[in-house]
Every structure is written in structure tokens, then in C-alpha cells.
């Protein structure tokens, strides 16, 4: 069997490294500008994380060659690039039995569409599944036990992906038929992770973090269920599990962004310094627009949107959240 990984960033390379023994053939595709000479020649990178791929892994910028004869195609590109990649796949023409597994967590702007909706719009007859959960790349590379959800409307497809991508003692997958819930849980928690990093940088204490995760989870459930998600999914791996991991770990890019905002840095400088995508930045805007359309309150997400996109100070952000009108839990 052949596995193709579309996206040569941290998570894409980590998945190629993790799953190499599960497949006879593994190919990593990335745009020409995203594949360094080091990766092409030595199958390794040292920044932003250190990875050594097996010799059998092919690295290419040829999308056609990458997806040819692939049984499973992991889509591991930034959410802003999903539509373009799918348009190019449509031009190539995927084979009938190929399965796309999206791993990117976010919402498209300005459409506010989930990634599976974007993929379906561009590739309407393709089998689509979602892989999401608490999956910090550096911990996976360290061999730490990791669990995640595979969501698909077709449970036979979900079980097939579960079987092929599980790595004994390292990477355990659970199936789920709630695509909406798995996608939204993984996307919306990134905004709360920024808030958690913000609180950590300001040394606001564990009481604050407990409140932040609880009230942040309430916002995730509020929006997701209004859009058709099952509440039980949001309290699973792709919701609460991912929320806990990203809100408590400096390994999370979104947590790191929040910490830098808490220290008074501006978002453009932060993203340049980070050198990789933090999906929560754009998702904060998408969440606020969704909440407005649904007539729902999302005070934490709104505060993070303002912290990212306006000149509000960290103290003003905190004061706005703590001094809101009193209400019932």
C-alpha cells in the first residue's frame, strides 16, 4: 500500500516518520519553496523540529507523481492552502478508491467553511475522513503514547483508516461518525489555546487556567452544537482532549502565540519569529463571525480576536473578561 502526505511542515513530516513502517511506499509532497535541499538529499530537517525520515520515503514537488497509486492521502497543509491544493487535485483527477484524510484544524476565511466542506466542494466524489486530537508533533516524535479520532460519515472508511494508521504502543485511533464535531473541536480549541498562553505569560495562576479551560469549552460546545455537532464528541479526544493538551503545553504553537501576546508583542512579529502556522490566529476571526451569525456570545474568543487584531493591551483584555456583566453559569 502507498501513503502520500501532502504538506512538508512539522506535522506532515512527523506523520510520514510515524507511519513509514505501516506502508510499502511513502511519499511526502510539498511546494518547491517548502522543500529544502537538505530534505531532498538527506531526508532530514533540523528546524523547526528535528526529523530523520527513512530512506524509502520519497520527497517530491510533483503533485501528480505524489498521489499516483496512493491508497491514503493525508492532507497536511495550512487551512488557507487547502482549497488550492484540492483544485490542483481535481485537475489531476483522483482514483475512485483513494481516500483523503484531512489533518488541518481551522476554518476557511471568508467562507467560514470547515475543511471537509471545502474539500467536498472541490472534490465532490472523493472519500473524505478527518484525523484530529491531542497530537503535539514533538511528543509523537519522542515516542510518547498518543490517541486521536478518525471521523468519517462512512464508518467502514473510518475503520479502514483506523487500522492502517494505528501504530502499536505509540498511536491509537478511535473512530467517530460525527465529522462536524471532530472538525470544530479541533479548530475552535486553538483560539482557547492562545488565551491559555496569554494567561500563562501574565502568571495569572492555576485558578485562572481552570476557569479559562472550562469557560472556553463552553464556547466550543455552544458554537459547535449550534452547527450540528454532538456534545459527546466535544468532550472526547478531538475536543476536550485536544483542548487540554494545547492549553497546557509550550509545544503548542497557539499557546506560544498567546504567551507572546501576553508579553506585549505584536502579531506580525510573533508569526515571523514563530516561522510556522498557528491556525488559532485566523480562527479567532472566523469564530467571532460565526458567533455573530448564530447570535451567540463567545467572550474569550472575542477577547483573543481583539488581542490579535487590535492595539488593546494585555491588561485591557483581562479587565474586559473579568468585569463583564454577571450571569448564570
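-> sequence recovered:
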Amino acid at each position: 500500500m502507498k501513503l502520500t502526505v501532502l504538506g512538508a511542515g512539522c506535522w506532515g513530516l512527523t506523520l510520514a516518520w510515524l507511519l513509514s513502517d505501516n506502508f510499502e511506499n511513502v511519499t511526502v509532497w510539498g511546494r518547491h519553496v517548502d522543500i529544502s535541499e537538505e530534505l531532498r538529499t538527506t531526508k532530514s530537517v533540523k528546524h523547526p523540529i528535528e526529523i530523520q525520515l527513512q530512506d524509502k520515503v520519497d520527497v517530491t514537488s510533483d503533485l501528480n507523481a505524489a498521489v499516483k497509486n496512493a491508497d491514503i492521502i493525508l492532507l497536511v497543509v495550512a487551512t488557507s492552502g487547502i482549497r488550492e491544493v484540492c483544485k490542483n487535485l481535481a485537475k489531476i483527477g483522483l482514483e475512485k478508491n483513494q481516500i483523503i484524510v484531512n489533518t488541518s484544524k481551522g476554518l476557511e476565511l471568508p467562507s467560514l467553511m470547515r475543511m471537509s466542506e471545502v474539500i467536498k466542494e472541490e472534490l465532490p466524489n472523493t472519500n473524505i475522513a478527518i484525523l484530529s486530537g491531542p497530537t503535539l508533533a514533538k511528543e509523537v516524535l519522542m515516542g510518547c503514547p498518543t490517541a486521536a479520532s478518525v471521523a468519517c460519515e462512512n464508518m467502514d472508511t473510518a475503520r479502514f483508516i483506523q487500522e492502517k494508521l494505528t501504530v502499536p504502543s505509540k498511536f491509537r485511533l478511535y473512530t467517530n461518525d460525527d465529522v462536524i464535531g471532530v472538525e470544530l473541536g479541533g479548530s475552535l480549541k486553538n483560539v482557547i489555546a492562545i488565551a491559555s498562553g496569554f494567561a500563562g505569560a501574565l502568571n495569572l495562576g492555576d485558578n485562572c487556567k481552570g476557569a479559562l479551560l472550562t469557560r472556553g469549552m463552553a464556547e466550543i460546545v455552544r458554537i459547535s452544537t449550534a452547527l450540528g455537532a454532538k456534545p459527546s464528541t466535544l468532550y472526547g479526544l478531538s475536543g476536550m482532549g485536544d483542548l487540554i493538551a494545547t492549553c497546557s503545553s509550550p509545544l503548542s504553537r497557539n499557546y506560544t502565540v498567546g504567551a507572546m501576546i501576553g508579553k506585549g508583542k505584536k502579531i506580525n512579529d510573533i508569526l515571523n519569529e514563530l516561522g510556522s502556522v498557528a491556525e488559532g490566529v485566523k480562527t479567532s476571526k472566523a469564530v467571532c463571525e460565526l458567533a455573530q451569525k448564530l447570535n451567540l456570545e463567545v467572550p474569550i474568543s472575542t477577547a483573543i480576536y481583539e488581542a490579535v487584531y487590535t492595539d488593546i493591551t494585555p491588561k485591557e483584555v483581562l479587565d474586559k473578561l473579568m468585569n463583564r456583566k454577571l450571569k448564570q453559569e
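The chain has a mean pLDDT of 94.
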